[in-house]
Please model this.
Amino acid sequence: MRPSRARLAGALALLLVTTLGTACGSTAAEPSPATEPTTETVLIASYDFQENQILAEVYAEAARRDGVPVVVDHGIGTREVVAPALQQGVVHAVIDYLGTALAFARPQTEPGERSPGELHAALRLTLGAHGVTVLRAAAAEDQNGFAVARSFAEAHGVQRLSDLAPLAPQLRFGGPPECPERPFCLQGLREVYGLEFGEVEAMPSRVATVEALVSGRIDVGLVETTAARLAVAPIVLLADDRGLQPHENVVPLVRTDVLERYERLEPAFDAVSARLTTQALVELNRAVELDGLTPAEAAARWWDGG
Model:
């Protein structure tokens, strides 16, 4: 029996209060679990953006087809909520991205300087102490990307992020609400590229960001490098010429005790990672962004070879 949505929401709300309270204090005591996990189904949580919801469904479908009872809760929140929920057993699995996951779990590291194998080993070591196993990473990779309208790029001769330096004080930037505190978003743009934008606007979604770029509401926006709209919208992805972004291979993070209970879960997830390429991820995004499928429908079609 899966936890009710209300029960899960209450547990996550309590967890968020605990997490924020710990962050404000001078010591980092190990918090107690917000709720007892249920082990009659595997609960996969997704982050609050569309691609991650698609990935959660792709991995969930693999588990179901291998006889593992799985449910997915979408858009639970940002990493500040979901990562502690996984470590405390409120949720059982998350599909994550190597570099960002390591930077969050071990803030003192510099993942941009490491290979995918090195990132995986460091993440496995870090999360293993918290009862979380890092499974096989996929070849599929999605990094933060920063785009401008094609007309803007042509007018200003902009092709690389470093080209924005003299223009930034007069530009309006759009990205997710958490972007100002993220090391691979505005924080990194400031530290690595010296970019100080004149204005910053919180965007509700990546789709809204693309629309704002096209309409001229913002000048620079964060989009995923695997976004399907990059191929159809009049926008240009700027080159990360100073290597701000780390390798971001898709990687499942799963409670170790859940893997022990469901022996078929790990090989099911590994089979996805063995097959999932960056191009496949772009096509999955296209199925939802442009073709109008739900994440679950896109995942099922992918598994059926459509």
About this structure: Residues 1-7, 13-38 have pLDDT under 50 and may be disordered. The longest strand covers residues 70-77.
